[in-house]
Design brief:
elongated, 7-stranded antiparallel sheet, 446 residues, homodimer, TIM Barrel
Chain lengths: 446, 446
């Protein structure tokens, strides 16, 4: 989908969005100003808080959300929309406003994570792209932050690329880093987002050589004593003995990728110590999730590598957020709050301003001020000891450059770690629970 | 990562693969001929069979697996590999052979889904890309085939793009289609892979208009009576009444996206029939998975739309396949079978030939003939009433063009539906179970 030097993101879109634009251009509602809101009705997996991730990626893709020749030809040849709509799409540039939570911010049920304002036609068409990015990246971040909390000060690396689709793997590495991981195995995440990368050798390295000893010797010759040797290809005890025989007690580290880790880690530590390798670090990497990491807190482990569980959201592979029309202009230009009324999927209409109230620096409530008109709603000034959660991400179609690229990732990571400091202690537990703080809606006159 | 008119896929790679190449170029093992095998140790989710998907995508990305200027600059600037390895990567083209299961084929624990033969250096570097693609796409296909079986002859559409990362959504639509779905909401999947697309309107369409009646009237004016109206924005009974009042009894369809579907579908059918709209079809789309679809078998439902559960693998978001060195040359050029010996992650060394044995057309065993050398293993001719499962996908670096693009998708879908016909009836049940047929390994002399 590369056109004129840009890779169009415009067809990461569900067909019904274009169908609605088609009909709305005919009946005149396409130009009605609208407010769409992206939020989660609940925290998947009964987690205690969520982490917004993907915002910077979304903003970059919003810049490339233009229908190029390939896209228009497909839509025309397949009669997806009529000629008038094709002309509209050909000229499409998002000219509206996007406000939202900073990337890395915490969120709770009902938090207005992203608010898109523009004409119906220009805002409705972003539904799928916005949800795809934020639902995936936030699902990874939601899991990653728990692993990061469980790991404490021990280094934590993401190495799950092989268990995620190839582009998702890059996004997952980015989201995990924002939520507290320190490195990734994924090279494209390093190149594109500036995330530190790591990795030395797989079992194939040992199997490629005629003996484990030859493999270890070759690795040390190539990378020096500070490398990490994978010691469980044949037997762990034999692997440790071989490693220290080859490297001496100054070996940097060993990696264990199988077995019952609390038991094996203790045995390997004792063996290393007995061999004088008291400074050799132990990295474990076998099927870890936040619970396994927590269970290793008292074990002599120096670093963790996490694969499958972090890139698949550790049981909750999507954040399950939705994108809903919450306010629009009527035929006379007045603003109307709107919401679906279905019993099991009701949502709350109206434009929203969100604050996190704090007591002595600890979060107490997710306070959401709802305007049933479209006036400016209350600001943080009206909420003593509250932090305003929304910032402007796109203004008049112009994207906030600070949220983009590797710099945006660093800002998001730093913001996440600060926001996490505000959580009450009970939020850090791993068991299923209600959200750590309640979401409180306050209605004001429009 | 677009370079010289191609989008490089070379950094969809874990760092340790390049690190191993770096060390192997120094010690001379980089040029040893190797056989890597991609397989699953078990079927995730205790399913009864698996579905291979992603092969065609992988082959297209294999063609673009070349290190361009951007990739090489990143690796050099970040000291990932040394100058000799950079030179090797700059000239990298896969020149080996890939054999594997046809896309759409069924697989079982231990099935050699993909076999990559080449030098160590050229084959080891494909680990992450191959696993990313096949693990994701097969996870979706594994779930989709069960939904397709549960839906029977009723049309089934994939509409989960919003619950998957943006590129994964396209791959998921493709995998679901191969595994029996009939259409997708995802436009890029339509453009790129030729998959039929569908979709008419969201709740935002109704909320955009001053009344539900205006929304319905406008939609019918735009698309005619054959369109599908979403009738649950306010009240379902009122929505149906309004739909038929506006459209008359010739309305094409209604869609229900909330509520207890067996109950609601029956009520809507009765109401439609009472209004004379006996030909109006009912599509349901609310949080469906294979179990919910099966539970609706006796309900008056005409079509299903499935979102979250299919794109996230319905509880098993990765197929969990691994990529292991199973045979290699030694220093003298002889072939050696190799395998990791760890108790909980042992694998079976040796090159493998795979057959599905049949009795009266029904599958009875996954027969895997293992050669401990590197001779040609037994062929289908030695196995009466057995079907050879592997085909050549890449020969001397040249990709089988028939597996690519929309034509490859159609071939894979047809093959899947044929292969599914061979399954014993017990394989079609949805409950957790052992695999439907046993995997039997037979060792032969090399």
């Amino acid at each position: 989908m590369s056109v004129d030097g840009f890779e169009s993101t415009a067809l990461f879109t569900d067909r019904y969005e274009l169908t609605m634009i088609d009909a709305a251009l005919r009946d005149g509602t396409a130009q009605r100003r609208c407010v769409f809101e992206l939020f989660g009705r609940r925290l998947p997996g009964a987690r205690r808080f969520g982490v917004v991730a993907g915002t910077g990626r979304l903003l970059e893709m919003l810049r490339d959300f233009r229908f190029g020749d390939d896209e228009l030809r497909y839509l025309r040849d397949n009669h997806v929309v009529d000629a008038e709509t094709l002309a509209f799409l050909e000229g499409y540039r998002f000219t509206g406003t996007v406000t939202g939570y900073r990337e890395g911010e915490l969120y709770f049920p009902g938090s207005p994570v992203l608010t898109v304002e523009g004409t119906f036609a220009e805002a409705v068409v972003l539904e799928t792209l916005a949800l795809s990015v934020l639902n995936h990246d936030s699902a990874v971040a939601n899991a990653a932050t728990r692993m990061s909390i469980a790991a404490g000060d021990r280094p934590l690396a993401e190495m799950g690329s092989r268990r995620a689709a190839e582009h998702s793997a890059v996004a997952a590495a980015r989201a995990a880093y924002i939520a507290g991981f320190g490195a990734t195995s994924n090279l494209e995440a390093g190149r594109l987002w500036g995330i530190p990368t790591m990795g030395t050798a797989a079992h194939a390295w040992t199997l490629l050589h005629d003996t484990e000893e030859e493999a270890f010797r070759s690795q040390i010759e190539a990378f020096g004593l500070d490398t990490t040797l994978l010691i469980d290809t044949y037997g762990i005890e034999e692997g440790v003995a071989t490693a220290i025989r080859v490297a001496g007690p100054g070996l940097g580290g060993v990696r264990i990728d199988s077995g019952d880790l609390p038991t094996v880690a203790a045995e390997v530590r004792a063996q290393l110590d007995a061999l004088g390798a008291t400074g050799t670090k132990i990295t474990v990497t076998s099927d870890l999730d936040e619970f396994a990491i927590a269970a290793l807190a008292a074990s002599p482990v120096d670093a963790y590598g996490v694969g499958t569980s972090v890139v698949t959201g550790s049981g909750a592979p999507t954040a399950g957020m939705v994108y809903k029309l919450v306010a629009r202009q009527d035929a006379a230009g007045g603003w109307v709050s709107v919401a679906k009324a279905s019993s099991d999927k009701a949502s709350k209409g109206g434009r929203k301003a969100a604050f996190r109230t704090l007591e002595h620096g600890t979060a107490t409530r997710e306070l959401i001020v709802v305007s049933d008109g479209f006036e400016e709603v209350q600001t943080a000034a009206d909420q003593p000891d509250a932090r305003a959660l929304q910032v402007t991400l796109v203004e008049g179609g112009e994207v906030d450059a600070g949220a983009l690229g590797p710099a945006g990732v660093q800002t998001a990571r730093a913001h996440h770690l600060r926001a996490r400091e505000e959580l009450p202690v009970r939020a850090l537990a791993l068991s299923r629970s209600d959200p750590a703080i309640p979401t409180v809606f306050v209605d004001v006159e429009g």
